[in-house]
Write a structure and sequence with these properties.
2 domains, binds 2,5-anhydro-1,6-di-O-phosphono-D-glucitol, D-Maltodextrin-Binding Protein, domain 2, about 25% strand, single chain, 8-stranded mixed beta sheet, Fructose-1,6-Bisphosphatase, Chain A, domain 1, binds manganese (II) ion
Length: about 350
């Protein structure tokens, strides 16, 4: 009889914890707790059509965006899951104006802070398309035994100790990195465990997919417009024209391009002059994953995403990420035409 051996997320985390230079057990436990919260959110996402959790919550988040019921549910799930761990002293989420500090003695001794987009791609919730959760973990800068401070959260992306996402798609996956490559785990609903399914993910150096909301075309920087035309031109050796694929969930768009090769672009637009995506809980974790998989992430203004020093919690930046050669090419176009903007 052939026995199919599965490696669960928790087994994998423990197996790898000797790779962490410090605080081995704590980070492992924190990652496990994120996995548990993800399973609870997954359970609700999966039955979203059946129970009364679709639609608007009637509230707006700090950025004036309307919140869905699931946005609020996911936000609360992750906050409460992290609050009880004792490893995490505070959290910043897309749905809350200020940082949330955990005030118990246990939590005040927590070495880590978490930034999180609890539900990414909310506009897709009601139509059964893929959505996600994105998270990043940093070591705190403030002293142990105190409440977390804003400065703990305004750290460059290079200081992430772990980052990842959960995609609630045709199957549910958790993909994460601790700076030693990227690994993907698929939730096996029959045993309720994330199982290693995509070890050591490497993204192709180039691909044939470009992902961008072309409805905003008229207000894109000139170089981005020219790059899109380049993607659409015929050229056999570079497999052009490329295919356009855009779901409107960063997690889902990035995940597809990570596995297949491609580029994701969210430039500045009329509504979002500095780009729409948020540095702390969207761009930084995705950039960390992209780089760890051999890809690239930049803001098109000459900066590597991970090097940007955050100025505020909800800061937005233009975002270009994916296969290295494709991001290089997009940057080349943006740079060449920047004086025309
Ligand atoms: P969120 O649902 O967390 O607010 O994020 C939505 C983001 C991101 O997932 C996606 O890439 C982008 O918004 C889509 O924006 P457009 O609808 O402007 O294309
Ligand atoms: Mn998002
Ligand atoms: Mn969100």
């Amino acid at each position: 009889m052939v026995r199919h051996i599965v490696l669960t997320l928790n087994e994998f985390i423990i197996e790898r914890q000797s790779e962490f230079p410090y605080a081995k057990g704590e980070l492992s436990r924190l990652l496990s707790h994120i996995g548990i919260a993800a399973k609870i959110v997954n359970r609700e996402v999966n039955k979203a059509g059946l129970v009364n959790i679709l639609g608007e919550s009637g509230m707006e988040n700090i950025q004036g965006e309307s919140q869905k019921i699931l946005d609020v549910f996911a936000d609360q799930q992750f906050i409460s899951a992290l609050k009880v761990t004792g490893e995490c002293c505070g959290i910043a989420t897309e749905e809350n104006e200020n940082i949330i500090t955990f005030k118990t003695d246990l939590a005040k001794d927590g070495k880590y802070i978490v930034t999180i987009d609890p539900l990414d791609g909310s506009s897709n919730i009601d139509v059964n398309a893929s959505i996600g959760t994105i998270f990043a973990i940093y070591r705190r800068l403030s002293p142990l035994g105190h409440e977390a401070m804003l400065e703990d959260f305004l750290q460059e992306g290079t200081r992430q100790v772990a980052a990842g996402y959960i995609i609630y798609g045709s199957s549910t996956m958790m993909v994460y990195t601790t700076g030693r490559g990227v690994n993907g785990f698929t939730l096996d609903p029959s045993i309720g465990e994330f199982c290693l399914s995509h070890p050591a993910i490497q993204t192709p150096t180039t691909g044939t997919i470009y992902s961008i909301n072309e409805g905003n075309y008229i207000k894109f920087p000139e170089g981005v417009k020219k790059y899109i035309k380049y993607c659409q031109e015929s050229d056999k050796p570079t497999n052009r024209p490329y295919s356009s694929r855009y779901i409107g969930s960063l997690v889902a768009d990035f995940h597809r391009n990570l596995l297949k090769g491609g580029i994701f672009l969210y430039p500045s637009t009329e509504s979002y002059p500095t780009g729409k995506l948020r540095l702390l809980y969207e761009c930084n974790p995705i950039a960390f994953l992209a780089e760890q998989a051999g890809g690239k992430a930049c803001d098109g203004l000459g900066n590597r995403i991970l090097d940007i020093k955050p100025q505020s919690l909800h800061q937005r930046v233009p975002f270009y990420t994916g296969s290295r050669q494709m991001v290089d090419k997009a940057e080349e176009f943006i740079h060449k035409f920047e004086s025309n903007d």
